[in-house]
Design brief:
Blueprint lengths: L1 H8 L4 H4 L14 E5 L1 H22 L9 H17 L7 H23 L2 E7 L2 E7 L5 E2 L1 H11 L5 H10 L1
Antiparallel strand pairs: 1-2, 2-3, 3-4
């Protein structure tokens, strides 16, 4: 758990990432750029490994890096959403984002490992976000989508999001 906490708190992205809650797939490339960033990839790889460990320990779920495992992530995020919805006061966005980065990184890593793509920085409307670009050029933000799934609910289904990515 100590390593898990260090990885969650070790990144400088925490303060900026809560903004991602309203960002999904990029349908427009206007004022949008992507730049490869190996540091983001290394961080995401570590977070994805945390997702595998956390899921096994706290949800008795084995994540196996397959496309099908994204349905398991959806179930876990659904449980987190129920907990979030029933908690008052709500946890701070940075605490929710810590979990969103872990599970969003797993989703992104499954995509990258199985279908290609790269981690980096997406600039959209002058704002920079850690994200990914598929081999076909679609930019996406799995951390933001995981955040939305936890905080907003099933309308931000991560498995449906992943399926949409596979069609782009």
């Amino acid at each position: 758990m100590k390593i898990f906490a260090k990885r969650l708190l070790g990144t400088v992205f925490v303060a900026l990432l809560w903004v991602l809650s309203d960002v999904a797939l990029a349908d427009s490339v206007a004022a949008q750029t992507f730049s490869l960033d190996p540091k983001v990839e290394k961080i995401a790889e570590a977070y994805a490994l945390d997702a595998v460990d956390f899921s096994a320990k706290h949800f008795a779920t084995k994540l196996d890096w397959s496309d099908a495992s994204i349905a398991d992530v959806e179930k876990i995020l659904g449980q987190m959403n129920l907990s979030y919805a029933n908690t008052a006061p709500k946890p701070a966005d940075d605490k929710v984002m810590a979990f969103a980065k872990v599970f969003g990184s797993y989703v992104g890593e499954v995509y990258r490992r199985n279908h290609g793509g790269e981690w980096g920085i997406v600039t959209l409307g002058g704002v920079r976000y850690p994200g990914m670009q598929t081999a076909s050029g679609t930019d996406f933000w799995p951390w933001g989508r995981a955040f939305d799934r936890i905080t907003k609910g099933p309308e931000d289904d991560i498995a449906a999001y992943y399926s949409a990515l596979l069609k782009k």
